[in-house]
C-alpha cells in the first residue's frame, strides 16, 4: 500500500473517530467554551491530525492516546458537574469587573483585561456609557455580561401593567412543499384550515409552498416558490379590532339619530359596554 493511500485511509478513520469522540464528549457553543474546554479541544484535534498524517506513528498508539485523553476529559467534566469546589478549580469562577457603577481596576489587572477590552465587551451588550452599568462580570467563558442600572432598563408590558398574550416558539409546518401532518395536529390546526390560509396568500396547494410557519397567534407565514404569485395576507386581529370600533361608532350614531329616549339610552349603554369590551381585549388583538 502506497504512502498516499495510507494517509487517505488514516485521515478518513481519524475524521470519523474524532467525530465519534465529539459526540461522546458533548458540545458547546464557541462562546460557552472555558479555557479548559478550549485546550482540550486543541489537544484532541492535534492528536487526531497526527494519527492522520504521521505515517511513522502506530495507529493503535494514537487511538489509545485519544481514548485516554477523552476519558480523562469526561472524568473531569463529570467531576465538575458533581462538585462545586472541583468545578471552581477546573473552570475558575466569574470575576466582577464593575460593581455599583465603579470599575474594579484590581480585577481588570488580575484578569489581564485592558480598559479597551472592557469597553468592547460593554458595547457588545449595547452599553456605551459606564454610568449606565450596575454590574459587569467576566464569565468563565471569557464573555462579559452586563446588568444595567434599573433606571436605564427598557420598560416591559409587565412594568406598565399591560396584559399580553403568551407566545410559544413558531413552528414550521410546510417544508419544500411537504406538509408536516404530525406537527400540525399537535398544534391543534386542521389541514383544511391551513389550506385556506395558504390559498389566501396565492398558492394553489401545498406543493406551491417552499416554507410555511405558524406563530402562537395563529398567523401563517408563507414563502412560495413563485414569489410573483404571493398575495399580501390580511391581518385578522387588527381587522377584528377595527370592526368592533365601527360597531361601537354605529351604536353612538343610532343613539344620536333616534328620538325615542328609551332607545337612545339603550344604544348609549350598549356603546359603553362594547367600549369596555374593546379596552379589555385590545391588547390581544395586536399583531
Structure explained in plain terms:
The chain is an alpha+beta fold and 287 residues long. 52% of the residues lie in helices and 13% in strands. The protein is built from 10 helices and 8 strands. The protein has helices spanning 3-25, 35-53, 59-82, 84-91, 105-110, 115-124, 181-187, 191-200, 236-257, 261-281, and strands at 95-99, 102-103, 133-138, 144-148, 171-175, 178-179, 209-214, 220-224. The strands form 2 sheets. A 4-stranded antiparallel beta sheet has the order 2-1-3-4. A 4-stranded antiparallel beta sheet has the order 6-5-7-8. Strand 5 (171-175) and strand 6 form a beta hairpin. The mean pLDDT is 81. Pfam families: DUF1657, DUF421. The chain crosses the membrane at residues 6-26, 38-57, 63-81. It is a multi-pass membrane protein.
Amino acid at each position: 500500500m502506497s504512502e498516499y493511500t495510507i494517509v487517505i485511509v488514516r485521515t478518513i478513520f481519524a475524521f470519523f473517530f474524532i467525530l465519534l469522540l465529539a459526540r461522546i464528549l458533548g458540545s458547546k457553543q464557541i462562546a460557552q467554551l472555558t479555557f479548559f474546554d478550549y485546550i482540550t479541544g486543541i489537544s484532541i484535534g492535534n492528536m487526531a491530525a497526527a494519527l492522520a498524517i504521521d505515517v511513522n506513528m502506530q495507529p493503535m498508539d494514537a487511538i489509545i492516546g485519544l481514548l485516554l485523553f477523552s476519558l480523562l476529559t469526561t472524568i473531569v467534566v463529570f467531576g465538575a458537574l458533581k462538585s462545586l469546589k472541583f468545578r471552581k478549580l477546573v473552570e475558575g469562577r466569574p470575576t466582577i469587573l464593575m460593581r455599583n457603577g465603579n470599575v474594579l481596576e484590581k480585577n481588570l489587572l488580575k484578569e489581564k483585561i485592558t480598559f479597551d477590552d472592557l469597553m468592547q465587551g460593554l458595547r457588545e451588550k449595547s452599553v456605551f456609557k459606564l454610568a449606565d452599568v450596575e454590574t459587569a462580570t467576566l464569565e468563565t467563558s471569557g464573555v462579559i455580561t452586563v446588568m444595567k442600572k434599573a433606571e436605564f432598563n427598557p420598560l416591559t408590558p409587565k412594568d406598565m401593567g399591560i396584559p399580553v398574550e403568551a407566545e410559544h416558539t413558531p413552528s414550521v409546518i410546510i417544508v419544500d412543499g411537504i406538509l408536516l401532518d404530525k406537527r400540525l395536529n399537535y398544534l391543534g390546526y386542521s389541514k383544511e384550515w391551513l389550506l385556506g390560509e395558504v390559498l389566501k396568500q396565492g398558492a394553489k396547494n401545498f406543493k406551491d409552498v417552499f416554507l410555511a410557519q405558524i406563530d402562537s397567534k395563529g398567523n401563517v407565514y408563507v414563502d412560495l416558490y413563485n414569489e410573483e404569485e404571493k398575495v399580501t395576507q390580511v391581518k385578522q386581529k387588527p381587522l377584528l379590532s377595527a370592526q368592533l370600533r365601527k360597531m361601537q361608532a354605529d351604536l353612538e350614531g343610532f343613539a344620536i339619530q333616534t328620538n325615542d329616549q328609551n332607545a337612545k339610552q339603550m344604544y348609549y349603554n350598549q356603546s359603553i359596554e362594547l367600549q369596555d369590551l374593546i379596552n379589555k381585549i385590545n391588547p390581544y388583538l395586536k399583531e
